[in-house]
Amino acid sequence: MRRVLAVVLALTALAASACGVGGGETLLDKDTVVIGVRPDLPQVGFRTSRGTFEGFDVDVAAYVAKKLGKKAVYRAVLAADREKVLVDGQADMVLATYTISQDRKAKVLFAGPYHISYQDILTRPGEQIRNVRDLRGRTICNVKGSNAADRVVVERGIAARLAPFDDYAACLSALKGGKVDAVTTNDVILAGLAIRDGSGLRLANAQFNEQRTGVGLRKGDVAGCEAVNRAITDMYQDGTASRLLHKWFGSAGLDLSTIAVPQFEGCS
Question: Which of 98, 122, 162, 184 is the most exposed place for a label (fewest CB within 10 A)?
């Protein structure tokens, strides 16, 4: 009887360890992982006319999945849906310009960051907007699900008007049409928009508010988080991170002179 009990306890322990720390579900148990990426951000995460996805975040996702020994399946995720697809189990990972913040960490777990960038400002040619203070009294695009415009008003105390739009494609159209004066978010997003548009839209190179872009995971998947962090470390050490950053943003004038493994948030 004692021997049977010992076997049962051993099997229970093995099952718990297979599910990762805390006994929750982990993406490491899956052969195929569903990865949420943006469909609307040129050079970052963009759905092509063929229905495939391309961009920096997509290449990073492919690298991480390969390091984990998983087949990757991609699904489109807009800014407003990043938490939802993880909480509802529609995605195992989200690499979609997902800036790490305390309120988001209450809902999901973050691996990384896999990239450190800064908030910047995109304007029409000839606009006299050089820094965040110049946004006072201006109308800036506020993409649903993004906190970039709020950070200008709340954190920086700039009395700007916010105009809501569903995605950055709509923002870009509004900027070129004069409905808004500026778009503000991660510099890589703005660089991608400017590269794809090609009409001379200008980056202010204001560089404010450090942006720590992480991999969103389901809450409690500590084992998966630690594995993703190891993959990100390898990506920087083997030169892949540098190659991808230059591939997608080298023509935008971003400062890519220092590329090093970011300091991780920690998975607990």
Answer: 162
SS3 168: helix
Q: How many CB atoms lie within 10 A of CB 212?
A: 19
Q: Is the dihedral of CA 73, 27, 88, 105 positive or negative?
A: negative
Which pair of tokens denotes residue 254? 């971003």
**pLDDT tens figures, 21-78:** 344 689 999 999 999 999 989 999 999 999 999 999 999 999 999 999 999 999 999 9
User: By C-alpha distance, which of 70, 61, 100, 71 is closest to 83?
Assistant: 100
12 token code pair: 């229970």
pLDDT in tens, 114-146: 999 899 999 999 899 999 999 999 999 999 888
